[in-house]
Amino acid sequence: MEKLFKVRENGSTVRTEVLAGLSTFMTMAYIIALNPNLLTGFAVGTPLWNAVFMATLISSAIGTFVMAFAANKPFVMAPGMGLNSFFAVVVANIAAITGLSYDESFNGALCIILVEGIVFLVLTFLKVREKIVAAIPYGVRMGIAPAIGLMLLNIGLGSNAGIYSETGGPFYMLGTFFTNLTPSITKEAMGSGYSTMILYVITTFVGLFLIVALHHKKVKGSVLFGMLGASVVYWIGSFMQGNNPFAGLATASWAPPFADMFGTTFFKFNFSTFMSIGWLTAIMMIVTFCMIDMFDTIGTLVGTASRAGMLDKDGNMPKMKEALMADAVGTVAGALTGTSTVTTFIESASGVEEGGRTGLTAFTAGCMFLACMFIAPIAALIPAPATSAALIYVGVLMLSGLRNIDFDDISQVLPVALMLIFMPISGSIGHGIGIALISYTIVKLVTGKSKEISALTYILSLLFILKFFLVV
After folding, report:
1. Cα 458 from Cα 329, distance rounded (Å)
2. pTM of the predicted model, to two decimals?
3. What is the enclosing helix (H) or strand (E) of 173?
């Protein structure tokens, strides 16, 4: 391990790295089932669902292993949230235009992901993506980590899948539970889902304060053990409510559906279907995916590396090229196997908070993805509120990055303030960075400091203006 990842040189231990990898995996394990659900319209058990399930695991592991061995960074990869939903919309639009079925159109849309991944490989080899990172102003870069922290808080305190009111609406911890005037109003709104909702809220906060207590006691693996403790609370509560959280293990399928993947999505590109939507539309789709993924990945890498103390005095991360290469390889692997864009997950911050500093953290999580081809039902036992507790805790810690902002410099304060709001509301790291770049450029222009703006920063700001306001 020392030869491969230089664990001691990075001030860590093998035990710490493994626990960090497990923590990261547990906070993002939801993607294993959620990604095929979103990409197939919750068509669980169909050949396409099984194929996307396998593609999610394999592409996540491939991208994460490249991150581990090439970049030696503790960041983990998987099909990006938001991008997968957008991909599903694209598939539906292709189906509407061509008259083909959703499954047939799916293989046409995979061409977008393949081209995107190849473009990223070329741009990374040419060091263009590194130059884009460098074009993000220092103040904006320092504000990315706190903005991601707020985004994690928003996710942790947001919706928890599986709880619905009698009218069919989803449950939101902040909205459904804490904004009502009295518990009776909440109970009336949720109906039969009220008791489950209470269990979710209790589990989340028990997990949160358990993590805090374990961290205060300097327990290695506090986030991981806090999530496990919260899971136990949830399981006990479920039994008390007359439900058995382990009931699905007896009927679950443990055999990896390799046949469905090879027969449905593996190298099954349909370029004629893709091009039937028109050249201009096809190009705009590719550009849109590229921009969103590029800045989501850059934001996650810079923000998480900042929290881990991996940035130099100029706010740059060593081996950024190799980390970006992992993102590109993961995206190509996703296209080849059958899933949407693979990107660096912000949940990697949970492993960093556990002390993960090397590729061994990523390698551990990658191995867990592969293991889930055989033990997926066990991974599914970790309830959403246990994950929420970890995300809230890590999100709070990442807010400390605000101390690096010069609050006397409006060209730093305004872009960061807007990014703090836009990132959690839009659910996109890339969109948050985009609005920050636009505002930074405009502030510099109106204050007579245009010479401080690099040419590439001008170009990036213009591209985001086009994306936000002019491209339809």
Report:
1. 29
2. 0.81
3. none
